[in-house]
Amino acid sequence: MSQPHPTAVKPEPPVKDASINRPPPPPPSHAPTPQPPRVAVLTDLNVEPLDSDRQSTSFITGSRVINDENSQDKMSLMGNAEIMDTEASQLKRLGKFRSRNSKAEYPPDFNGADIDADQNGQGASTSREEKVSSLKTGLVHVARKMPKNVHAHFVLGLMYQRMGQPQKAILAYEKAAEILLRSEEEIDRPELLSLVQIHHAQCILLESLENCTSDKEIEPQELDEICSKLRESMKSDVRQASVWNTLGLMLLRTGRLQCAISVFSSLLDIVPNNLDCLGNLGIAYLQGGNLELSEKCFQDLVLKEQNHPAALINYAALLLCRYGSVVAGAGANADGRTSADQVAAANVAKECLLAAAKADPRAAHIWTNLANAYYLTGDHRTSGKCLEKAGKLEPSCLATRYAVGVHRIRDAERSQNPNEQLTWAGNEMASILREGDSVLIEPPVAWAGLAMVHKAQHEIAAGFDIEQNELLEVKERATYSLNQAIGEDPDDAVQWHQLGLHCLSTQQFKTSQTYLKAAVARRKESFYGWSNLGISLQLLEESSQAEEVYKHALSLATSKQGHTIFSNLGNFYRQLRKYECAKAMFAKSLELQPGYAPAYNNLGLVFVAEARWAEAKFCFNKAIETDPFLDAAKSNMIKAATMCKSDTGLASCISD
């Protein structure tokens, strides 16, 4: 089976070049018995449309990083990014922020002290409530009797903070800071003032988090206030950087990406050599899809501390994400030069992960990412062994099980009898959905994994003569799982794109157009989404719109991505019998990507249309030489030879 490639050319019914990298529903119970392939006829290049996003392989753990759209083809390359926070003691100092909210307000009558009993959340034991109430009453009493007792106000604030009542804690911290800011010599405690200011800012943050949804950024004014407190506290005590780093992590883990970046950046302006903060800023950029800034952070970190395990892991994850998001398969290969950057990046990632594994050999996520690195270099056997080791270290880890499922799908692509591998992969993906805690997994990713299996099963089944009802059942399973993934996250352009590709492969062109339009509406800069929309419009014979969409896709693509779109556009002109325009497009595709097999195949079809048999034979041979798995080129070669032999005057042109 073939792997996906960045943008596909127009698929046509007669010849199917199956590729298997996409999302999937429950594991297949029936696998079709392989039968001889159908007789091929002369057609366009029939590789699957762009599947560069079909694998949403971001891992399914809370600490892992997910990168945007290429997540489809980002074969779980990001793995579990290491959050760099070495100050466990500081975390303890911050307390455990519970979700209980109290509507009782801090009375304004006396220095922020409140003698009303706290109304703790339901479920807390009576004895604990009594102890907390007694402790608070005592602290309030001390604060009233000794209004200059900074520690009484500070500890009272800590107690409220631990109880999840940031509004009350803010008032207590403000009173403590007010006392410490007085010019009296006996209360000149800069370190304590720094600590009070830190907790004060944290409570402002907590109060903001309570008042907005999980994906809503903090208001600019509130963020400025937090950063202002940060700078004030750092001026008085630079040792508090680790606590501010923790504050940034709180923002990052609750979805306030831009706020987290602001806090980490502000902290680095003051202490540029804080390695934990630098690493976390890299993670924040990676989560936001800014791979260049993320790479810069991780490179700086590795240069400053070459043996930092988390830095090595995150830098490797970034490389795998950036350079391994699109992996060429049948119909997308070119000469060795095209994958040089990928191979170099994969080798660097591999060395980083081997060093990290040496430092911490029992970390399963390191072995999972190492498996991805080996896979990119073509060492499938070692990749499988790394996953086996990860599975033994953490057999119940959902991220590892997901990676194992993806690996089985990859194995099925190279297997002569893929049904068993796909059954195992389907069982693995389905078990994640059955057993996984919704807090620990990402349902859209889990459903995408299951859809990957079902799409692979459908592609295989479509290549054999099986009962129509069986083929329909496999198709419906794939459609169902893709719809489930969309239902979990309707704003995910990746899954809309996958569903559009599935409809293209099942010749539901009008439906495909609807889904692909939904995908590009959600991700307007997706060049491959626009390119595949062009294919859909072309198949519906909406020529003017198709040409416009192809050109828009070209405007979004880089020089390393445009060759696939030029090949598609060449196919478009060939079908309109504009052969000179078509040849110009294929020439441009081969200029950008020398040895691009689909372009050679499609150029051969132009020469067939012009009855230039020798040139057609050369192009088909070149396509097969470059990519032996490109069955469409083999089929077209046979058909062209037959057509040529029918003309006795030109029969010698194809004789060996």
TrEMBL record:
The reply to whether Transmembrane helix figures as a keyword in the UniProt entry is: no
Q: Where is the composition biased (Pro residues)?
A: 22-37
Keywords attached to this entry: TPR repeat
* Record region (Disordered): 1-39, 98-132
The UniProt entry annotates TPR repeats at 150-183, 241-274, 364-397, 563-596, 597-630
- Family matches, as Gene3D superfamilies: Tetratricopeptide repeat domain
InterPro entries reported for this sequence: TPR-like_helical_dom_sf, TPR_rpt
- At the top level of its lineage, which domain of life is listed? Eukaryota
Q: Name one Pfam family in it.
A: TPR_16
Where does the signal peptide begin and end? none
Designated name of the protein: Tetratricopeptide repeat (TPR)-containing protein
Q: Which organism is it from?
A: Forsythia ovata
